[in-house]
Amino acid sequence: MVNTDARINEIYDVVQKRNPGEKEFHQAVKEVIETLGPVLKKHPHYAEQKIIERICEPERQVIFRVPWVDDKGEVHINRGFRVGFNSALGPYKGGLRFHPSVLLDTIKFLAFEQTFKNALTGLPIGSGKGGSDFNPRDRSDNEIMRFCQSFMTELYRHIGEMTDVPAGDIGVGLREIGFLFGQYKRITNRYESGVLTGKSPTWGGALVRKEATGYGAVFFAEEMLKVRDQSIEGKTCIVSGSGNVAIYAIEKLIHLGAKVVACSDSGGYIYHKSGINLETVKQLKEVERKRIKAYVNEHSDAEYHAEGSIWDIPCEIALPCATQNELGEEAAKTLIDNGCIALSEGANMPCTPEAARLIQHSKIAYGPAKAANAGGVATSALEMQQNASRDAWTFEHTENRLREIMCNIHQDCYETAKEFDLEGNYAAGANIASFRRVADAMLAFGVI
Ligand code: GLU
User: Which of 230, 242, 296, 306 has the fewest CB neighbours in a 10 Å radius?
Assistant: First the structure.
């Protein structure tokens, strides 16, 4: 009989020693493995075959130099990363993040999370993540292009539609995917549509991919509310962030009859009591690439706050869609005191462990990122499916598929939590359901 708690503590010690200083990676690993004790008890062969130990070790990690020249002729050196974490269920799959804060730690935590998220989609995708500490802010289109070309000049050796399929994440959208694909095509002499997802629908991209992460997080919230005989209609919501995920979460909330009163960027947040005007946010962020502060120039009844927390504003539904660890213990307390009923994570790991614990033990329905934001990567898998069959689906068909996938993920997490006497604990349900799926595939392949 294995002492599961002792075994899990030992595994965590090794992870900490082997990956010194990688705090976000440690945090992500801890959050998953501390829920797996009951699984090891029920299925001892996972412990015998050291599946958790294997799942915590990336299959491969590539780090490379990315030199490029800015518009003034100055040379810059950035660092590029691509981590292939687990390929038990399919080719490595996950986005690229371009942000000055990116370290190997960041990419490893994201790739680790992706393992479980991608398994939850039920689609044949493994997990990976990549990116660079490049800061795209205030760079011209030509600078972005030269950076992307240099980045792909190394990355192309490591990816392929059957090997590793990158997409976007923070700082990587349609424009960057275009430049990256162009360079890949040029170097390899192949029009290999399935090598990247998040492409423009005018040249092989899937409709709904752009909207999918935000829409999916809202569909997940809707499912959690249904269990409690409630709905999104008429609710006051806060969505942090104002990037791709936040914009389309706001859009779907508005479609479903909610009122979104606040959103943010790294400079501060706006509060618009009568409801955010989404067209203004899209114009500022998607077209003009400006700071959210500029919103108040168009709407004099809105407030801009450079200080304080967006979560101080009372809301019934909260969607953190900005970045990791953006919502801490204080914010969690405020949400609970203000009577929030549901929180669905659009960003990856947006709640600190302390915040997550408080929310989990409150009356708030808590949708963890691995489940709630899986709509983006799921639609990437639908894009791969369309590319493989040289097909293009309609918006309506793709959105229906996305909704169905999000309902299935919700059901899977809900039922799995119930099976382990943890009803309503979507975080445990998500970790256990996805772990079992990856673990069973790994067992089938033997010790590799
Ligand atoms: N970066 C997104 C995520 O965190 C999407 C990845 C993809 O589409 O491959 O899941």
Answer: 306
Tens-place pLDDT, residues 304-329: 999 999 999 999 999 999 999 999 99
> What structural domains does the chain harbor?
4-55 (no CATH), 60-191 (3.40.50.10860), 211-372 (3.40.50.720)
- Cα(318)–Cα(54) distance, integer angstroms: 35
Structure-block tokens of residue 221: 């919230």
Ligand 1 pocket test, candidate residues 377, 405, 409, most atoms within 8 A of CB: 377
**CB < 8 Å & 24+ apart, contacts of 419-423:** 420/38, 420/39
pTM over 0.90: yes
Q: Does the structure show a pLDDT above 70 at 1?
A: no
Name the 3-class secondary structure at 110.
Answer: helix
Q: Is 197 in the pocket of ligand 1 (CB under 6 A)?
A: yes
What's the distance, CA 8 to chain centroid?
26
Whether residue 376 has its Cβ less than 6 Å from ligand 1: yes
**Best CA proximity match to 262, nearest among 274, 271, 253, 254:** 271
Contacts 24+ apart (CB under 8 A), 305-308: 305/268, 305/269, 305/270, 305/271, 306/267, 306/268, 307/268, 308/269
User: Of 335, 402, 396, 397, nearest to 374 (Cα)?
Assistant: 402
Which residue in the list 108, 129, 252, 285 is annotated as catalytic? Answer: 129
Cα–Cα dist 340/312, whole Å = 11
Q: Specify the pLDDT at position 312.
A: 98
Exposure string (b/e) for 386-419, b if CB count within 10 Å is 16 or more? Answer: bbeeeeebeeeebbebbbebbeebbebbbebbee
- Catalytic annotation present for 129: yes
Phi, psi of 157 (to 5 degrees): -65, -20
Q: How far apart are CA 385 and CA 19, in angstroms?
A: 36
Which residue's CA is the closest to the ligand 1 atom numbered 8?
377
Burial 69-89 (b: 16+ CB within 10 A, else e): eeeeeeeeebebbbbbbbbbb
Identify residue 191 by its one-letter amino acid code: Y
- φ/ψ of residue 402, rounded to 5: -60, -45
